[in-house]
Description:
This protein is an alpha+beta fold. The chain contains 4 helices and 7 strands, in the order βββαααββαββ. Helix 2 packs parallel to helix 4. The longest helix has 23 residues. The structure holds zinc ion (ZN). The site of zinc ion (ZN) has 11 residues, from loops.
Amino acid sequence: xxxxxxxxxxxxxxxxxxxxxxxxxxxxxxxxxxxxxxxxxxxxxxxxxxxxxxxxxxxxxxxxxxxxxxxxxxxxxxxxxxxxxxxxxxxxxxxxxxxxxxxxxxxxxxxxxxxxxxxxxxxxxxxxxxxxxxxxxxxxxxxxxxxxxxxxxxxxxxxxxxxxxxxxxxxxxxxx
Length: 176
Ligand SMILES: [Zn+2]
């Protein structure tokens, strides 16, 4: 099972940048992407929280879930098997600059897994939180799991760097 330990060299040159027109495209599939800086992301999160209080978590999780479903549908269209869901997530997280997402026990395909995100960008600028704050990440993982593996998954962030843990750790469980 994949634990992020196999050391193939990842591609170093993922994007083409057209500075004249402000267009960045991912080489692998020609998809246009945008860069979102981490301080800006942190501001967005904080403002959502102060406007919607606990509703912010729902909004961010839903954003992540929708995007995760999209990632999952792309993976499926490329005929990745459900067993490869974690590789898909790992690669997408890596290539998107979210951090290094690895399995830390269990097996996504068999219904329960613990994932760790090292160098998490989602909570990079949030310190001394009392609760985990990576709601976008939680939604992302749930969306990918639901789409690729099927069924419904419950995802809980159990550790979060924003509240002083070394890494962000999430528990994924298939329900129903
Ligand atoms: Zn976190």
